[in-house]
Write the structure tokens for this entry.
Amino acid sequence: MQILRNLAAAAALFCLTASACAQAAPPKAGEVANGLAMTPPMGWNSWNKFACNIDEATVKRIADTMASNGVRDAGYQYVVIDDCWHGPRDENGFITADPAKFPSGIKALSDYVHSKGLKFGIYSDAGRLTCGGRPGSQGHEFQDALTYARWGVDYLKYDWCSTGTRNAEEAYKLMADALRATGRPIVLSICEWGTSKPWLWAEKVGNLWRTTGDITDKWEGKFDYSWGVVSIADMNEPLWPHAGPGHWNDPDMLEIGNGGLSDAEYRSHFSLWAMMAAPLMAGNDIANMTPATRDILLNKEVIAVDQDRLGRQGRRVWKDGDREVWARPLADGYPAGLKAGVRDLWLHKDVGRVAGRYSATVEPHGVVMLRIGG
Ligand code: GLA
């Protein structure tokens, strides 16, 4: 895959084999945390679009749409409510939902989401308070895990605000143990922004770990506590040896459709995430998206790259100024040196059988993504 980061169009060369391009070491062997997420999790998360303005009507509307407009059937299965769903703890310390925003309660909402053939996820924090100032799980880990299991939760995003001097590895292991003790399969999404290098210790703890601070709907650069799309990709890319089935680097949720970037830039965003075997958590208002946004999020050929069962994260294999080539070995890879079919995954077209080289023009901030083989 070639990406062009600056505003001048250019022709590009492509390596044609995994061995020529990637020279990737095999992924580390090892047990997985819980047997879940053997391909990167896909779904929707409320935060990027709705932040704290989230309620049960919105979540239902999103779930309805996902089930009826092809999003669910393209593989997006988790519906995750991020921060700010919480009410107070009750007199026994059990967490409750905000009664104004979730009047029917979380169990009813989870049942609703399940009735649409989707899975249900929720958010908490390893500290005293969440990043949005709601009650965190510190000191309530087993109680909260039990509550989530009773509610039918399938996915927990576990954040890192208000944690003081807590040790991240211990804190996440504690929640992993608590989730395991419920007997319910629950994906654990570690969200400590890469602070304690979770790629070095979390392979058997969680299923995905954030590698960076928060994404923002911009192309490049750092903005207070968040980063643009290609800056996030730069930080996540070198971590490619640590990803594999059941344990993924997480460069944060998608901004596609939130309005800050052009469609060409969003195609690059989606392509980079697929090359990096990233979790694909849509972060837009799925119930109100343009046809162009839908075409990006539902590009099944790009999704298939993300979800490739080999689970090897792709990487940058060539860079010349703002021009870059990325490559990712896939399960159906083929021997080097043979003539191979080339398919353009955004044109949805076979573009020839070639050996050694392929060239194409890449639009500004754009991408050409090719599947090579066969
Ligand atoms: C942190 C996380 C975000 C989001 C917010 C919620 O910033 O990194 O993804 O969950 O908290 O407050």
